[in-house]
Design brief:
The complex is a heterodimer of chains A (114) and B (112). By secondary structure, chain A is mostly beta strands. Chain A is built from no helices and eleven strands. In chain A, a hairpin with a 5-residue loop joins strand 4 and strand 5. With 112 residues, chain B is mainly β. Classes of the chains: A mainly beta (114), B mainly beta (112).
């Protein structure tokens, strides 16, 4: 199936730990994103990569480090997890050179930090 | 304050009734996207609007972008239980940047 898939779906961990979330898209898109949705359902962009190059980096703590090994993959590594990092993290992709191409989202990773 | 404001924040309607959700921006909307989210799932793309005055329909859902391109509405006709979920509007406020900003969402409940 063509899709944006992210793993794991659920992640429960303790404060101070380091964790990673993986994302893969097989839509042939050249741009990938990480969005964070908090408990109030606000969805905010964190990062965007275009052909493995970082193009959007919002004011995100440097404990968050995205990595794009190729244009089909965008992973998110989080160091020294804090309680406030608990949220749902969504990966998305689009085709940047197609004007106003919609974003296609994964099903999200629900991160709970205890 | 949010760059995109949605209203209402939640909506409960009787099955079969019509409803409207609004999305308002203080800036020009270069592209306006409507998504639907069900609990535990990702966002499903519904429609995209670009031109002032544009209107698109898919099944019983119609979306419009006003002439000034600062407000959009999503209208559902004869609502069904399958329409329940969270509706989010997303907008490209920075032309060509592909950096979508989202509203806070509208939680729609359909009562049988």
């Amino acid at each position: 199936d063509t899709a944006v898939s992210q793993t794991p779906k659920y992640l429960v961990t303790q404060m101070g730990n380091d964790k990673s979330i993986k994302c893969e898209q097989n839509l042939g898109h050249d741009t990938m994103y990480w969005y964070k949705q908090d408990s109030k359902k606000f969805l905010k962009i964190m990062f965007s990569y275009n052909n493995k190059e970082l193009i959007i980096n919002e004011t995100v703590p440097n404990r968050f480090s995205p990595k794009s090994p190729d244009k089909a993959h965008l992973n998110l590594h989080i160091n020294s997890l804090e309680l406030g990092d608990s949220a749902v993290y969504f990966c998305a992709s689009s085709q940047r050179d197609r004007y106003n191409s919609p974003l296609h989202f994964g099903n999200g990773t629900r991160l709970t930090v205890t | 304050s949010q760059e995109l404001e949605q209203s209402p924040q939640s909506l409960i309607v009787q099955e079969g009734k019509n409803l409207t959700i609004n999305c308002t921006s203080s800036k020009t909307l270069y592209g306006l996207y409507w998504y639907k989210q069900k609990y535990g799932e990702g966002l499903i793309f519904l429609m995209m609007l670009q031109k002032g005055g544009e209107e698109k329909s898919h099944e019983k859902i119609t979306a419009k972008l006003d002439e000034k391109k600062q407000q959009s509405s999503l209208h559902i006709t004869a609502s069904q239980p399958s329409h329940a979920g969270i509706y989010l509007c997303g907008a490209d406020l920075f032309q060509g940047a592909q950096k979508l900003v989202f509203g806070q969402g509208t939680r729609l409940t359909i009562n049988p």
